[in-house]
Amino acid sequence: MGEFSLELNEDQIQIKKWVHDFAENVVRPAAEEWDEREEFPWPIVEEAAQNGLYSFDFMAQALMGDESGLTLPIALEELFWGDAGIGLSIFGSGLAAAGIAGNGTPEQVMEWVPQCYGTPEKIQLGAFCVSEPDAGSDVSSLRTRAVYDEAKDEWVLNGTKAWITNGGIADVHVVVAAVDPELKGRGQASFIVPPNTPGLSQGQKYKKHGIRASHTSEVVLEDVRLPGSCLLGGKEKLDEKLAKAREAMNNPKVSSGKQPAMATFEATRPAVAAMAVGIARAAYEYSLDYAQERVAFGKPIIMNQAIAFMLADMATRIDASRLLVHRAAWLSRNGTFQNAEGSMSKLHAGRTAVWVTERAIQILGGYGYTREYPVERWHRDAKIMDIFEGTEQIQQLVIGRAISGQRIE
Length: 409
Known about the structure:
Butyryl-Coa Dehydrogenase, subunit A, domain 1, 14% strand, alpha+beta, Butyryl-CoA Dehydrogenase, subunit A, domain 2, single chain, 3-stranded mixed β-sheet, Butyryl-CoA Dehydrogenase, subunit A, domain 3, 4-stranded antiparallel β-sheet
């Protein structure tokens, strides 16, 4: 077990600088353009692949080669300090990779996770498909069905997924579907949909409030046939899980195991929280510089308590969020969450990003409300941190259940 420390090691210091330099020199100068275009920023992702940031090797080093668990959130904070839309385009495939790593066999992980990234010469994307038009926070109510054709050892998938990062343009889609709807969340499984599989198509592309450089769309599955080997974890493991779930319906003392979607979200929530910290820090640093330079009534506006106190609260909330993120990331790598620490980190960091970016607009006044300054974009980008991978209220529900031991509804 890695020893918890707030002091970064030499490798982490170098990675932090490496990612920050990329965010400062490549991502931030392009952020406004791709936000306005509302298109996937292929040139930026290609450059990230060329320097090794968008790669299976980096993700393996950050996730599997780091006992502290802090390397990935450190990198995410720096990249999202540059821009959230482009940052999510670069790290969006990581959610699919996490879904495979969290539910697949070692052989499946080695086969499919690298294909979520491809190579610098041939970039590939991954997409993790859970949410549906009528099932966002309520993951247990998924309507997408997976039916097993025993004669052909194939699974047939039908349904529509909503709000999918890289949906339809990805090479590898990881789809969570119901195999036994009566068991609700315990009757679900995850499947790999390989590149160019017939029956998978992109539905509507969403026009979003923020993170507009990130591609978000529906994914439509019409009689998608997959070989048995595309069931993550394998048929034997699934049958055992379903048997336990059926037994648990009649005997509450029997554990029925984790939902595949929830297992992925538990592991990635500290990462999303780190993204929120990066956005908040960008807005705080910008408004701090502005307050020191902007003169009103004969003095820099930071000399007024009303401004200085806002900045003091911004700095405090950001530091508190980062500490929660680092604790959750370390626990995720070295132990187990005791009181939903992953959800705590996302809840606090998401709220912080929204509040800090709103205060940044206030400090800049009318200028902050215009597109001439980046704080309005950061405010738009921040709001999604309160919504995706579990809304603010879902995080409260998870935490409430963890600290009380009660099935709070």
